[in-house]
Amino acid sequence: MKEYILNLLEKNKRIDNRKLDEFRKIEIQKDFIQRAEGSARVKFGSTDVIVGVKLEISEPFPDTPDSGILRTDAEFTPIASEDFFPGPPNENAIELARIVDRGIRESETIDLEKLCLEKGEKVWGVCIDIRIINHDGNLIDASALAALIALTTTKIPKIKDDEIIREEYSGKLPLKHKPITISIGKIGGKFIIDPCLQEENLLDSILTVSVREDGKICAMQKRKNSLKVEEINKIIDLAVNKSKELRKLI
Amino acid sequence: MKEYILNLLEKNKRIDNRKLDEFRKIEIQKDFIQRAEGSARVKFGSTDVIVGVKLEISEPFPDTPDSGILRTDAEFTPIASEDFFPGPPNENAIELARIVDRGIRESETIDLEKLCLEKGEKVWGVCIDIRIINHDGNLIDASALAALIALTTTKIPKIKDDEIIREEYSGKLPLKHKPITISIGKIGGKFIIDPCLQEENLLDSILTVSVREDGKICAMQKRKNSLKVEEINKIIDLAVNKSKELRKLI
Amino acid sequence: MKEYILNLLEKNKRIDNRKLDEFRKIEIQKDFIQRAEGSARVKFGSTDVIVGVKLEISEPFPDTPDSGILRTDAEFTPIASEDFFPGPPNENAIELARIVDRGIRESETIDLEKLCLEKGEKVWGVCIDIRIINHDGNLIDASALAALIALTTTKIPKIKDDEIIREEYSGKLPLKHKPITISIGKIGGKFIIDPCLQEENLLDSILTVSVREDGKICAMQKRKNSLKVEEINKIIDLAVNKSKELRKLI
Amino acid sequence: MMKTDEKLIINGKRLDGRKPMDIREIEMKVGVIPNANGSAYVRFGKTTAFAAVYGPRELIPKHLQEPDKAILRCYYNMAPFSVSDRKRPGPDRRAVEISKVTKLAIEPALFLEEFPETTIDVYIDIIQADGSTRVTGINAASLALADAGIPMRDLIVALSGGKIDDTLIIDLCGKEDNYSEADIPIAFLPNTKEITLLQMDGRITPQEVKDTIRNILKAGEQVYKKQKEALKNRYK
Amino acid sequence: MMKTDEKLIINGKRLDGRKPMDIREIEMKVGVIPNANGSAYVRFGKTTAFAAVYGPRELIPKHLQEPDKAILRCYYNMAPFSVSDRKRPGPDRRAVEISKVTKLAIEPALFLEEFPETTIDVYIDIIQADGSTRVTGINAASLALADAGIPMRDLIVALSGGKIDDTLIIDLCGKEDNYSEADIPIAFLPNTKEITLLQMDGRITPQEVKDTIRNILKAGEQVYKKQKEALKNRYK
Amino acid sequence: MMKTDEKLIINGKRLDGRKPMDIREIEMKVGVIPNANGSAYVRFGKTTAFAAVYGPRELIPKHLQEPDKAILRCYYNMAPFSVSDRKRPGPDRRAVEISKVTKLAIEPALFLEEFPETTIDVYIDIIQADGSTRVTGINAASLALADAGIPMRDLIVALSGGKIDDTLIIDLCGKEDNYSEADIPIAFLPNTKEITLLQMDGRITPQEVKDTIRNILKAGEQVYKKQKEALKNRYK
Is residue E4 included in any domain, yes or no? Predict the structure, then answer.
């Protein structure tokens, strides 16, 4: 299989007939979870991710007493792969959550300053929970897209007597930016986007890049082996370019 | 041994000469632990259980701001069996604690509404801790009985300057009901109560039923394999009936 | 090697040419960590320990509402020995932390009553963190000395609007006493101080003694096998005596 | 269970318009997780569960293996966003108990002795909770096991019953569960009517318990039918 | 240790009426846990401990086995209700340290080399705490080991000493422990007077330490006698 | 990253007097932990790291071994007193991620296939943190590996870059990190210019990212030189 995939790539072809820079079929389902303040299910081919956003009344950090709080967690639930097992998040789940979190945090996606309820005492905590339903590669891009879309659907619950009234809302979560996260794999001399799991296992290297709608880079993470400077430069340009395509789906 | 036990049962006999619906010798010792606000030690034959009740000042749950809190934990201490080991509670200890808890909670044994100290701020937390000293079967019935008796002995400590004065008391814990928990095992075509460990291991099925003094059922749990409807109905009637016998011991 | 060490000791000699009651070369470096409120690095030969002291605003214990809090932790970092591994502190690390803590606590080294910020609400918490950098025996004595020296260097941070201003100070941590901890090993009929690791592994027994500057004993811990009364008495006298030597280094 | 002054049944209709013996809208899909040997998606009203089966597969470490049968392991898990107030990830004591009773509910349907030294792992993931999550999970597990081609004596059908406002009902939603006088989750094998899950909490008479069990066995036929349809649709 | 203005000794009598060198009422029973290979119940005043011994038994996983001797494992545990403010279940740092020194206190009495590749597990459960719990636990462990028929050089006798109100005492109760100037738990083998546990905290002179050790060795004879009686009663 | 009104660059000088492309004072020592197979102490300004290498050594349990190569395990850890507000001991999520990217940063420099069935354990201990801790740790690990005599393609050189007050800088200190517009830690093999660590967070243009990478590759030569000197000094 390995040889087969590599030979195809040599001819700029992929096992599922995609072009090197072509995404798999992307399916997006919004408001999948009514219990959550925001949610989205995103499929990249058979990679399947659900993200739910919950809002909680939280204490602000001492150094930002009038800003809301963002927290991102990921569970690689054992339903999603024969290689996932019950237990606390492993280093891959933690890395995924932190990359998605950085993309959102550093791009200033959420207008956290509008989430203060009582300075120094109470702010909204925005909890993003990523749940892998089926793992067929490129979990990070699918999760980042699902998280962003879930945020766009997120409503702020009403508060009465210091208690949240669930499923009644006072407005939408204020967003300032919309970052798109693209991971580009290097395999032989080729660069591919949205690798499926079989491809992912064969990659020489992969670089994840988050791009804001104004073209600024807000997060990057090299995730395998090494890359040359010129390769990195090429990947950055490619990611900026492809992010426009994905952005149309939001 | 298995054959021997089964053959005896065929003749309505048991290895310790009991009748099918006969309890082992039950010994009850109250106020076993002076440090606890309430306590009891209960033996069913050589099954030996100690329950201590501690009262703590706690925060109420947001949805019941003027009600006390109940919490039940069980430790299968490694002193009690060669099969128990140090470590956090396993699924059997958790199940036992939750069944005992449900019997007490659902029967409304404790008058939790009388345990409010300051609405929304402070209530009494009633902590029931079950400790297995020797395991010879039927841990749940012995634990439930010990928990109930411990509650009947429980006194409420005095409070001064928001601090508990331990070992000085302002009154008794207010109780409204007294549930009795009976587990009935099915083995071949026979139903037995209070199985010892050797019998327990041979049971086809077992159903635990908690019965209140007004004859209402307040908790049930099937704990092995399967039962037919008519068997369940028979067990319920038997449990209601035998609960009266056990209730006399309180 | 074992025979060699034992034969040398028979002649009152040690593998590194020390006398039985001679310390290894002791190196002390103060204020090693500018980020900490106090710190020290202590080497006994190639045993290498760093202690940092951090001050935190803490809640006092209910029974001592106007006293500061002391907390001592030790990490046997895996950098220090091929036998140390990542993970929570094992029983040896916990024992070391507790022995050092007792020496400081029981000798009343820190004037905790001067560390009250707001009675019953806020006091200074003094956190001593012991970090083993290289393990070549006698970790307890080196750690206790490093902890004491770190405390002598500790400054109290300024507070503004209930927040700590780090790296600005209002004064020195008030100390009342200075305990010295000496562990004396028994090996054959000999008593040795400051055992290196190779010696430590061969000891018949070892007793740790903390001595205050007024000659009072404030903590002891026998750490291996057994000792006779007369041996204990001899060790206590020796420890009191040698503590004077070590005290000169503070 | 809490108390409420609110009426839960008005003019014979429950809060969501159902009659006492009505089941909520059921959605069942099989084969929804390509990586799994078998999988299913089951929804009762808003209560939504995925189940996946991995195995029979080799059990490591070997000392956990049984020489004469497969080990069945069940894990019930809830998504943090599945409930009103975010739930911390990872199993709590409730989930540990549900995992245990789920295993007991499923085991009688399987021929574990056919797969010695292996494990069959059943994972249930509740992504939205509106009452009756454990029975929804068991229904999903039943379909996932069948989808995995694991030989079964019968499908496992699960349904909850209870009592609200002096009325016996089935298929409790979350609010009914919170304020019910009794909650009785049941699982059974339809062909033999063997009951493999039976739990109860509340305060009702023995006769009401018995009636509820009978009600569930009857209404469970609808769930059974849905399960069979879902399996049939898999191969359409 | 905290300070108090309260006098702990009045007219030569301690709070509970004891003289400085008096031990509280001792109760010792052997064979109290039928499942254990050996077991004991020991009470000093209100301080109450169970101990159970399981083993020598096979140690799994095998890579922990010692080829030439048994492993001795000791676990000291306190019931949540054993103390004034409920203690969270499970071992804290104090319990880990006590488990370690308990193992060291017991080990010299045993012939571990007689049982290679096995483990001897000693579990101590404090069900009520009123000072001196670790020595009470060691006394219980001593009896449980003897009850288990494990060969011993000698029983292990344990007793605490200390200083309150300028007076050396033995067998501290909880309140004395809290306000003492020193607390010295000791265990020893009576025949050889080998001291196997020695800890101390407080602020007293070297001579007072030495005197306390001597006091305990002397008063420990009473504890030794009680242990032997308890073992004799086992076979009455 | 937080915002501040404070200027971080005044008259072309950073808070500590450096120019944008200046590296802080570097101190590097090799062989500082006698027990380790290799070790190093590295300081950039106040940021201080120890690294120790143990191995290649046998990996237990055996089922984790790889038959054709060594396993590389990296652990990044911070002392509780290394930061302003005491950090709880033990790895948090940040440390888990840094451990992972550190392993990836180091692995391309090693010939793991030369040591089948073994593990090479690299432990990094940050004892003082003032920005750029992960690259400081990687530099220390590089020296420790060389000190351990483990064959390497090249040393691994690590350095951070970023942007403050509209200016591209390198080697961020803590305060610059907190208020930066971008933070880009990089590690590379100087001979081949292969980049083995690349992370970034902030908000800058693609060109600024590219420029920063180029700046770091250039300035990294100074770090490389220091590493080689430190290794030379080891044998003076």
Answer: no
pLDDT in tens, B103-140: 999 999 999 999 999 999 999 999 999 999 999 999 99
Q: Quick check: D216 pLDDT over 70?
A: yes
Q: Is the pLDDT of residue D5 over 80?
A: no
Q: Count of A–F CB contacts within 8 Å?
A: 94
Please state the ipTM of this predicted complex: 0.95
At residue A37, does pLDDT exceed 90?
A: yes
Which chains, if any, share at least 3 CB pairs under 8 A with chain F?
Answer: A, C
pLDDT in tens, F35-46: 999 999 999 999
d(CA A21, CA A192): 5
Using only C-alpha atoms, what is the Rg of chain B?
19
C-beta atoms of A89 and D89 within 8 A = yes
Q: State the total domains in chain B.
A: 1
Query: The pTM is what?
Result: 0.96
Q: Which residue of F has its CA nearest to C167?
A: F84
Can you give the residue range of the structural domain that contains D68?
A: 14-234
B209 Cβ contact partners less than 8 Å away, ≥ 6 residues apart: B181, B182, B183, B184, B217, B219, B220, B235, B236, B239, B240, B243
Taking CA–CA distances from A221, the nearest residue in chain F reads F199
Mean pLDDT of all residues in C22-47? 97
Q: Which residue of C has its CA nearest to E106?
A: C225
Output the domain CATH number for residue E87: 3.30.230.70
Could D101 and B221 be called an inter-chain contact, meaning their C-beta atoms sit closer than 8 Å? yes
Chain C hits for E154, Cβ within 8 Å: none
In a domain, F104, yes or no: yes
Q: Give C95 to chain E, closest Cα distance, Å.
A: 6
User: D touches C (3+ CB pairs < 8 Å)?
Assistant: no
For residue E130, give how far its alpha carbon lies from the nearest alpha carbon of chain C (Å). Answer: 18
Convert the pLDDT of each residue in A144-163 to its tens digit.
Answer: 999 999 999 999 999 998 88
In a domain, E178, yes or no: yes
Nearest-CA distance from B224 to chain E in Å? 24
- Which of C206, C229, C237, C242 would you mutate first to test chain E, the one with the most E CBs within 10 A? C229
Tally of domains in chain E = 1
Provide the percentage of residues in chain C whose pLDDT is more than 70: 100
Say whether B222 and D193 touch across the interface (CB within 8 A).
no
- E217 Cβ neighbours under 8 A, 6+ residues apart: C229, E186, E188, E193
Name C129's bridge partners. Answer: C52, C73
Instruction: Locate all alpha helices (DSSP H) within chain E, ordered by sequence.
Output: 93-106, 133-147, 174-179, 206-234
Q: Which residue has the higher pLDDT, B170 or D234?
A: B170
The token duo for B108 is 């409304």
The CATH number linked to A126 is 3.30.230.70
Contact F202 A225 (CB under 8 A): no
| A and E adjacent (3 or more CB pairs under 8 angstroms) | no
The minimal CB distance from A166 to the residues D36, D84, D121 is found for: D84
pLDDT digits (tens, 9 = 90+) for E6-59: 899 999 999 999 999 999 999 999 999 999 999 999 999 999 999 999 999 999
Task: Give residue D234's pLDDT band: very low, low, confident or very high (50, 70, 90).
Answer: confident
Q: Could you tell me if residue E201 is inside a domain? A: yes
Q: Which residue range forms the structural domain that includes residue B187?
A: 2-247
Q: Which residues of B touch D99 (CB under 8 A)?
A: 91
Asked whether the predicted pLDDT for residue E4 surpasses 80, the reply is no
Is B in contact with E (3 or more beta carbon pairs below 8 Å)? yes
Q: Helix, strand, or coil here: A28?
A: strand
- The Cα-based distances of E25 to E9, E135, E222 in angstroms read 19, 15, 11
Q: Quick one: pLDDT at residue F236? A: 73
Number of H helices, E strands in chain A: 5, 12
CB proximity F83 to A under 8 Å: no
CA distance A37 to D84: 9
Partners of F184 on chain A (C-beta within 8 Å) are: 220
